[in-house]
Write a structure and sequence with these properties.
Elements: H1 11-39, E1 45-48, E2 51-54, H2 57-81, H3 85-100, H4 102-107, H5 111-134
Antiparallel strand pairs: 1-2
Helix pairs in contact: 1-2, 1-5, 2-3, 2-5, 3-5
Protein name: High-affinity Fe2+/Pb2+ permease
Keywords: Membrane, Transmembrane, Transmembrane helix
InterPro entries: DUF6069
């Protein structure tokens, strides 16, 4: 009896994996917010220019969703433009993650807020990079 092993992920399956990846990253950062803010008592605030603002769960969810959707869109575009989309996308995504860390490192108010915001970026980036890379064509 011969067993066939699929060699490529179908387009609908790829979309589903990408959608689940973006949702998983969002859930992971929201879970981090719940652990950090109400449970651990971190006062999660960040500087935006001369203002200091609280980082709300809505802000966490929206920014993670937008980052995930932007990563997905870039991956889809690269898949149409180059045969090395996975490699190019991974390098760009890793660079974007590193640059994104400048926000909390320069804007977090206090050590706990800064570390928490860095952790959110790393969690979202790790989930998005591994999941979207896996679903690359």
């Amino acid at each position: 009896m011969e067993t066939t092993i699929p060699t490529a992920v179908t387009r609908p399956t790829r979309r589903r994996v990408r959608l689940l990846t973006v949702l998983a990253a969002t859930v992971a950062t929201l879970l981090g917010w719940v652990i950090a803010v109400p449970l651990a008592g971190v006062e999660l605030t960040a500087r935006t220019g001369s203002d200091v603002q609280r980082v709300t769960p809505v802000a966490v969810a929206v920014s993670t969703l937008l980052a995930g959707l932007a990563g997905w869109a870039l991956l889809a575009l690269l898949e149409r433009l180059t045969a090395r989309a996975r490699t190019v996308w991974t390098a760009v995504a890793a660079l974007v993650l590193l640059v994104s860390l400048l926000g909390p490192l320069g804007g977090g108010v206090g050590r706990a807020a800064t570390l928490t915001l860095v952790a959110f970026h790393l969690v979202a980036g790790t989930v998005l990079i591994t999941g979207l890379r896996r679903a690359a064509g």
